[in-house]
TrEMBL record:
PROSITE patterns given in the database record: GLYCOSYL_HYDROL_F1_1, GLYCOSYL_HYDROL_F1_2
Family per record: Belongs to the glycosyl hydrolase 1 family.
Secretion signal span: none
Catalytic activity reported: Hydrolysis of terminal, non-reducing beta-D-glucosyl residues with release of beta-D-glucose
Single GO MF descriptor: beta-glucosidase activity
Active site: E353 (nucleophile)
InterPro entries, per database record: GH (IPR017853), GH_1_N_CS (IPR033132), Glyco_hydro_1 (IPR001360), Glyco_hydro_1_AS (IPR018120), Glyco_hydro_1_beta-glucosidase (IPR017736)
Protein name: Beta-glucosidase
Keywords, sorted A to Z: Carbohydrate metabolism, Cellulose degradation, Glycosidase, Hydrolase, Polysaccharide degradation
Organism for this UniProt entry: Chengkuizengella axinellae
Length: 447
């Protein structure tokens, strides 16, 4: 047995998102979001599920924070529901929304848990979508206004901010594949949305600096790692495009001030034009304090003409999969973090999401989710390998604290360390919860 010791100041935590856990969709003045709308369109979400109630954390947050305290986490990443603060996206602030988050953050701090706040985890106010959503550049200003309100309101309480969660999903999964709200299928719209999200990120970082706020700010892209199926150049090239679509497309503008030229050329070849206005790249290219990384899976890809926008297809090479069907590829975490460090330097990195879907149910009050524990062990080993290799990893936040509304999958997929009975709202810590509790307490990992 080998003991893998983590740094003394390493921050262990968990993560969730507002729409996935809060519920109370029409309580205390909250406006409608694009996910409220999308989930009501027949066929968009598994079995017509929605986030109206979810885990009812809006009313049960004290119970949930008690579970966090028992787990021993030092940090908790959550998101703020924009339509809870600005029911119409702009205009009048909803005081009840602010009150809820003040009570919530105060309770975290009382229990020694440091809040890491994501400003945007996909729940755009429907009122803004009605005006074009992220296709409309006015939404950039609306977001900066929302962010400024939060920065001022929670000054001194929240010292760790992320602008956006998984821009790739908000842009491409939502507007090219159409699997997420608002459900469009247009690559030009998706590329425009991606750019507007990046501009909004940069302008928000600038606003944060302008306010002289105490703390740090970053963002949380999702990444993957693609291996080429063969050493043929066309396979190598398509694997590079697959990685760049997630990594370089959303990181080069922030860290280097430009989009990766080979991807710009590729999109142009596919008929997509870049609608970049003067000053946009300078706006995006703002120094950030840390980089959040969401990693779940990777794969092997092969060139296939016109199979999708990148001309690649995934090849099943027999890796084990989680219950959602994603390949288990822990080494990919090491490879992608090394790549990011080599390309962008020693930026402080937090793993802001990493976890697995296993749909184990309680038996005699015990949820024996061996698959999840095994997944976490393997990925945390690779995380330690990253640190030993000089990657500046500062913390790890397991996805997710509890089972929740899994977007288009509804309630059919469970990622939580805590099982939620959606009928009774009973919470049951799983065996993975107790394994993670021991890891946090010891600050080392046995392999």
């Amino acid at each position: 047995m080998t003991i893998l010791q983590f740094p003394k100041d390493f921050k262990w935590g968990t993560a969730t998102a507002a729409y996935q856990i809060e519920g109370a969709y029409n309580k205390d003045g909250r406006g409608m979001s694009i996910w409220d709308t999308f989930a009501r369109i027949p066929g968009k979400v598994f079995e017509g599920d929605n986030g109206d109630v979810a885990c009812d954390s809006y009313h049960r947050y004290e119970e949930d924070i008690e579970l966090m305290k028992q787990l021993g986490i030092k940090v908790y990443r959550f998101s703020v529901s924009w339509p809870r603060i600005f029911p119409n996206g702009t205009g009048e602030v909803n005081p009840k929304g602010l009150e809820y988050y003040h009570n919530f953050v105060d309770k975290l701090l009382e229990n020694g848990i440091e809040p890491y706040c994501t400003l945007y985890h996909w729940d755009l106010p429907q009122a803004l979508q009605d005006q074009g959503g992220w296709e409309n550049r006015d939404t950039i200003d609306a977001f900066v206004n929302f962010a400024e309100t939060m920065f001022k309101e929670f000054a001194g309480k929240i010292k760790n901010w992320m602008t956006f969660n998984e821009m790739w999903c908000s842009a491409f999964l939502s507007n090219y594949y159409g699997n997420h709200a608002p459900g469009k299928r247009d690559i030009q719209i998706a590329v425009d949305v991606a750019h507007h999200l990046l501009v909004a990120h940069g302008k928000t970082v600038s606003k944060y600096r302008e306010l002289g706020a105490e703390g740090q700010i970053g963002y949380a892209p999702n990444v993957t790692w693609n291996e080429p199926y063969s050493n043929k150049q066309e396979d190598i090239d398509t694997a590079d495009r697959g990685r760049a679509w997630y990594v370089e497309w959303f990181m080069d503008p922030v860290f280097k001030g430009s989009y990766p030229q080979f991807m710009v050329d590729w999109f142009e070849k596919k008929g997509v034009k870049m609608n970049v206005q003067p000053g946009d790249m300078e706006a995006i290219h703002q120094p950030i304090d840390f980089l959040g990384i969401n990693y779940y899976t990777g794969g092997v890809v092969k060139y296939k003409e016109n199979s999708d926008i990148l001309d690649n297809e995934g090849i099943n090479v027999g890796r084990d999969k989680t219950d959602i069907g994603w390949d288990i590829y822990p080494e990919g975490l090491y490879y992608v973090l090394k790549f990011i460090t080599d390309r962008y330097g020693q930026v402080p990195i937090y793993i802001t999401e990493n976890g697995a879907c296993y749909n184990d149910e309680p038996k005699d009050g015990i949820v024996n989710d061996e698959g999840r524990t095994s997944f976490l062990k393997k990925h945390i080993t690779q995380l330690h390998r990253c640190i030993e290799s000089g990657v500046n990893v500062k913390g790890y936040m397991c996805w997710s604290m509890m089972d929740n509304f899994e977007w288009a999958y509804g309630y059919s997929m469970r990622f939580g360390l805590v099982h939620v009975n959606y009928r009774t709202q009973e919470r049951t810590p799983k065996e993975s919860y107790y394994w993670y509790q021991k890891l946090i307490k010891n600050n080392y990992h046995e392999v």
